[in-house]
Amino acid sequence: MSPRPTVALEHRLIFAMGGGGFTMEPANPLLDDFVLSLASAREPRILFLPTASGDTTGQINAFQARFAGRACVPEYLSLFRLRDIERTLAEVVLDQDIVYVGGGSMRNLLAIWHAHGLDRLLVQAWQVGTVLAGLSAGAMCWFEGGVTRSSGPPATMDGLGLLKGSLTVHADGEPERLPVWLASVRNGALPGGWAVDDGVGLLFRGERLQRVVSSRPGTGAQRVDAIAGELVRCRLEPELLGATGRGRAPSLDEDVQEMRRVQRLRRSIIGKG
Amino acid sequence: MPAPIPQIVALGGGGFSMERDNSLLDDFVLSLTGAARPRMCFLPTASGDADHYVVRFYRRFSATCKTSHVSLFRRDQGAEGVEDDLASHLLAQDVIYVGGGNVVSMLGAWRAHGLDTVLRQAWYEGIVLCGPSAGSLCWFDEALSAFHGAPRRVRGLGLLPYSNCVHYDAEPARRAEYHRLVGDGMRPGFAVEDGVALHFRGTLLERVVSSRPGRRAYRVEPAVDGVVETPLEVACLGTDAVHPECAAA
Q: FRET pair for A29, CA 20 to 30 Å: which of B73, B158, B199, B222?
């Protein structure tokens, strides 16, 4: 593996979902196909990090069910199960086109990443142009802060700060979270930012919000700032994915899938040699 | 009232999760409490709070102990484990049983929830702390952890001023790596095979016990020329015909 060069800020992508994707919308692949479309590789390598859930079998199986048949090379990294002592964490993380972070406990996610030095590796991955995607805890982690229920009641928490501002998730699905976030933005405990419904994702190019997309109608997002102690809220209308075919990965026929499986197998054999 | 005695039982591997038909090490831990029906809380953090592990814990201990568990991943969901005041719940136990898994992930999550401080307090207050694998490594000052890449030194909670290496028999590469690290300045410490437990009173090793005959543990220290590995005297539990395999040895 040769080190990849750092890319300019406008080529660094982060896709932050309020909820949705394979763990929450097993019958709706629109957000996940959009994630794949963000990588420039035709067949992107996509790494799933289920850390925030404690690496549950449920999340790992759902990831494989969603991506195994798509034009990509899926892989997951467990920080709890001993799977792979051949490669270092750096070798696993820095050799991807997409890193996809699942939901769960934001507090545990960031603490465990930090304990393994994975937080630094992910910043590095972003700097070399790896698309960072995630939902819920896996979305808030990229911002300066968010609202987590990691310890029970909703509470503010710092993120990695790659993106300016704060994020709150499940704005429609978990109504008790939003008021805590709004109060924190108003009193300055959190910087202004975005509240995002389930099924909605924000695409950031560099630090700038570029697109707001959704997997289902009737959902939305809002930008909220505190100005002179008052909240100024501005609704963002998402583009509905699938309606125009934009952001959809092409489906593969059986022969192509077969060939890819063989190639993957061959690669893994060579890799072990 | 006499001052409580801090106690740790560090299993190289074994106990309910690894020894299905042999409860000797777990019984030994329970015997240290002096309670007829000990209060026992399970911390499955190192496994990511794996459901199957929690189920096995209850299956093993709920008949004889007042059992509970603390999940650090499902604190938003309430009801199942202990949700409200982790500290006061843990400090009301007779035994805290820490499950195996990844020690680095576990220590990271513990620190984020303040459990490192709570467990130190529990130790001072005489609550028996125990566990296999990651549940052993965590109590020591330094530990050898094998995960993604070569085995490496990991800093534990530091209650016991030694290093620790578990599964000493199961993975041959560990022995070489542990010797190298101790030779390179890692704290001297203890290497323990599966089925063996170190019992510490305070910071002193009181006794080494095993659930099966022929199991070993060693003290590993630096020497002029590399390291010296000294076998420890291991008492096989259950020799009074409770466990025929032991009695035969």
A: B73
Interface of B with A in 131-150 (CB under 8 A): 146-149
Q: With an 8 Å Cβ cutoff, is B103 touching chain A? A: no
The answer to whether the beta carbons of residues B180 and B207 sit under 8 Å apart is no
Query: Are β-strands A131-135 and A98-101 bridged in parallel, bridged antiparallel, or unpaired?
Result: parallel
How would you write the pLDDT of chain B (249 residues) with one tens digit per residue?
A: 678 999 999 999 888 888 877 889 999 999 999 999 999 999 999 999 999 999 999 999 999 999 999 999 987 654 345 556 889 999 999 999 999 999 999 999 999 999 999 999 999 999 999 999 999 999 999 999 877 767 789 999 999 999 999 999 887 788 999 999 999 999 999 999 999 999 999 999 999 999 999 999 999 999 988 899 999 999 999 764 444 444 444
Q: Which two tokens stand for residue A255?
A: 């022969």
Which residues, at least 6 apart from A185, have a Cβ–Cβ distance to it below 8 Å? A166, A191, A192, A193, A224, A225, A226, A231
Tell whether B75 lies on the interface with A, counting CB pairs under 8 A: yes
Among B62, B74, B70, B80, which Cα is nearest to B41's? B70
For residue B109, give the nearest of B148, B144, B138 by alpha carbon.
B138
Residue whose C-alpha is closest to residue B75's, from B107, B41, B30, B109: B109
Q: Is residue A116 flagged as an active site residue?
A: no
Contacts of A18 (CB under 8 A, 6+ apart): A135, A136, A139, A169, A170, A171, A195, A196, A197, A198, A199, A200, A201, A221
Burial class (CB in 10 A: 0-12, 13-18, 19+), B95: buried
Q: Could you tell me which of A106, A146, A102, A96 has the C-alpha nearest to residue A126?
A: A96
User: Catalytic annotation on B136?
Assistant: no
Nearest to A44 by CA among A249, A199, A204, A252: A249
All residues of chain B having their beta carbon less than 8 Å from the beta carbon of residue A55 are 48
The tokens for A132 are: 């960072």
Q: For an interface test with B, give the residue of A53, A83, A105 to mutate (most B CBs within 10 A).
A: A105
Q: If you count them, how many residues does chain B have?
A: 249
Contact assessment for residue B148 and residue A92, using Cβ atoms and an 8 Å cutoff: yes
Catalytic position from the list A105, A170, A184, A214? A170
For residue B56, report the phi and psi dihedrals to the nearest 5 degrees.
-65, -35
How many C-beta atoms lie closer than 10 Å to residue B227's C-beta? 18
